[in-house]
Amino acid sequence: MAHERRSETPQLVLAMVGLPARGKSYMAHRLRRYLGWLGYRTRVFNVGSYRRARLGVRHRESYFSPHNTAAQRQREALADLALADLLDWLRSGGEVGIYDATNTTRARRARVRERVEAVGVRLLFIESICDDPSLVEANIRETKLQSPDYVEMDPEIALADFRARVAHYASVYETVQSGEGSFVKVIDVGRRLEAELVRGYLPGKILFFLANGHAGRRPILLTRHGESLFNLEDRVGGDPGLSPRGERYAVALAGFVRLRLGAGADIAVLSSTLRRTVETTALFEVAPQRWRALDEIDAGICDGKTYAEIAAALPQEYAARQADKFHYRYPGGESYRDVIGRVEPVLLEIERQRRPVVVVAHQSIIRVLYSYFQELPAEECAWLRIPLHTVFELRPVATGLEEERHVLTVDP
Amino acid sequence: MAHERRSETPQLVLAMVGLPARGKSYMAHRLRRYLGWLGYRTRVFNVGSYRRARLGVRHRESYFSPHNTAAQRQREALADLALADLLDWLRSGGEVGIYDATNTTRARRARVRERVEAVGVRLLFIESICDDPSLVEANIRETKLQSPDYVEMDPEIALADFRARVAHYASVYETVQSGEGSFVKVIDVGRRLEAELVRGYLPGKILFFLANGHAGRRPILLTRHGESLFNLEDRVGGDPGLSPRGERYAVALAGFVRLRLGAGADIAVLSSTLRRTVETTALFEVAPQRWRALDEIDAGICDGKTYAEIAAALPQEYAARQADKFHYRYPGGESYRDVIGRVEPVLLEIERQRRPVVVVAHQSIIRVLYSYFQELPAEECAWLRIPLHTVFELRPVATGLEEERHVLTVDP
After folding, report:
1. Residues in A 15-74 with any Cβ partner in B closer than 8 A
2. Which of A221, B81, B211, B213 has the most other CB atoms within 10 Å of its CB?
């Protein structure tokens, strides 16, 4: 129950550390999405964006040389400005500020630490270390060369320039060491972790997330079960089987997955324990993992009723739910916020998969998962339109997730 | 909601690694308590106990020499037996088996890994490294010299013998390295962690716990708020203030804490956000941390009612609660299991404190905390007798927690 934790969460600064092209921004971004979804007000302050916004783009590598004293002063001033904005934002109610900068020297980190601790906020350094040249090269090609810094430049020239920029940072780089306070080192995209003085609830949670995180590039397919006998009657919850149309969806979906991800492909299928998802996945080539945590929202005393019956018999409940569908908890049942709490372990399971993932679940579950992946404000998820017989396909691209919706035909 | 996770938990073996007197058994014990409290069926298999049970006690150091081939074969057979029992237990429904042995050589660990993976169960090595001689010495004096192996022996002779035993292990010790699968190294009682290939929900949770864990030796004082106006009427929930007797408890408690822990002592006080705990802690020297997660169990539609009213108006609810008080969820409210889920972050906060801790909360909250610290089966916690105006003082000793109950006088 994320809301229980809110009031006692001390504020926290996460300061990224690492050479360019080590996936710092990607990691910052994933942490922001995850912590935001859990209910923490989280924001990323990216120093590169400050530079581009204030000084314009197209800085060449020489600008990043440690011997270019004027530029270095400018860059430090921008880094300070971004940090000041972060601390201002915490003062006005922010909870987790992510400071996305290189912070590659001890001196720079000491300065960050001094300023954060001066306002009584805890600090955790997150260093990304990756010495696999192929990963670094892929990162540069996929993200850095798309940066406004290199727009309209010949890719090979841009690549050489960026490599020279990295070399400037590398020439003064000092890895985080004991004595610099709390830190986590994420080595080779989470294969190895080293952590010192990571204590407390939220830092522990972040460690947990980083242990499961990686830069996986696999599609995720989300869908509700096929039409159920209860769907026909606009009835909530229960454990009904599929309608004839729902059965045709099971056939269509199995065919679609096979075509889309390849026959015999190594994929992970996750579904709930309820009859309508079991029947929907009956023709899959791969046996689904059945998670109770993916079962539909528990409607408590409303379970098995139609919406009309609920409105008639429990008008106050009906009105309360319409007024705040996200926080509303069915008597004896769950709220959307509760659902986020119990879906979290499955989300981490999806995140750590390197194989394509297919999730066959229920309306509330697809809503909260979709809102995580597409970074919608959690409160809005309860109103998302997630129609039946539709596959939401999410494919990671450099800038986020590309979405395609496939409406499958279920009419005979 | 721990019960949501149960059905999909894959089984797991945690294999301890480390020299004698590095706190392995203590760590195994803490993990068992924590995972058990969260609802996982967890058991420790300690190879030392197998040796003592089957071969008798009083083995001298020469028995542990790597050159004593006969003894070594015997010890390996016992270690294999304990592991076989662990795997049998998993087969019969256990969820997390903790293999408490030294496992100090690569060859031994390879054997463990082979046997665990042969039955399709995941394995995580947990290595405890501690090179602080004072910590090791304290551990030997406090636990090892109390062992049945050294009963009735002169402590100095026993100490010398035990040190020689450690030296035998140290002579062949190989630390866990990349390539041995998933592992966590806990260095200097959690100050530093190193982890490789730790993925998935439960291993992540364990990493989180180890990051917060330490061998703290501080007293924990648990108490309910003083008598409230609702207590006088046998009424559930609400946000009432204290009765006159409750107010006198606030005076008595502040005095007791000052006397017991010392005036001006550096202590942590945790309480809830409700009026009755705020008033109970009003005279404390230290400002309490107020946690919403420590608020009383949410009684939903029964909030503010007396037990007699509930029994009369909602007889089925009343009966359902009596039948299974632990799992029973008040309509629109919480079950004890829900309470464990939301109290967990506060528990980790208490665990990581190195200062004495005073918790002023509510009946259900003290019940679940007490059942954690005193290792009672979670299901029984809902029936624990936690009277008003009583301080439960828990002091860590080598073998667990020593409990003292102080009933404070509140009559004028």
Report:
1. none
2. B211
